[in-house]
Amino acid sequence: LGKSEHIGKILVDSRNSDIVYVAAEGPLWSSGGERGLYKTIDGGKTWKLVLQIDKNTGITDMEFDPSNPDVIYAAAYQRRRQTWSLLAGGPKSGIYKSINNGDSWSQITAGLPKGDVGKIGLAVTTANPKVVYATIEASNDEKGFYKSMDKGESWEKQNSYISGGTGPHYYQEIEASPQNSELVYQMDVFFQVTRDGGKNF
Q1: What is the DSSP letter of 169?
Q2: Whole-angstrom Cα distance, residue 19 to residue 115?
Q3: Is 168 helix (H, G, I), strand (E, B) or coil?
Q4: What is the largest CA-CA distance in the chain?
Q5: Residue 65: beta bridge partners?
Q6: How far apart are CA 120 and CA 27, in angstroms?
Q7: Average pLDDT over every residue of 134-147
Q8: Prediction pTM value
Q9: In 52-196, at which residue ranges do the beta strands (DSSP E only) sit?
Q10: What percent of the chain has pLDDT over 70?
Q11: Which of 111, 116, 102 is nearest to 37 (CA)?
């Protein structure tokens, strides 16, 4: 994956360490490259592009379902840096789900922002595998911290908080406690924490 340039995350299947997934964000200053979600079944000798959006949209985050690694959640991010600006988001950003080891994908839209979306961070928890969290950069009305109670099939906004400081594109990462499904940490200039599933940070 020499042309991917930026890797958002790597996941290794706990059942077989030769099966690895890579979230490739792709080049920042140009379109194309190796961009999307890649899978290897031979320990990295060969790679297959299993989720491709377009030439400006890569994958920045992904998570296994803790109760079933056949189920994978992925966050797509449309971005392009120009000398004069950063195009951080667009209509192709979103949340995708596979239930068959990444062989096929569907985009989830129920309860999520309807307008252009920027960077998305995902989190799941072994404390309750039905719960999936997402922090979503979007318009002022739609941005915020979202929660799904049905394995990502539908979502409900909890509040309008997203990572700030130097901008959400630098952060937007969340981690859920493996013991307490309501406890989630979000990266920012400082750590932010919610103890009630995102209602308050």
Answers
A1: G
A2: 35
A3: helix
A4: 46
A5: 68
A6: 18
A7: 97
A8: 0.96
A9: 57-65, 68-81, 86-88, 94-98, 106-108, 120-124, 132-136, 144-148, 156-159, 174-176, 184-186, 192-194
A10: 100
A11: 102
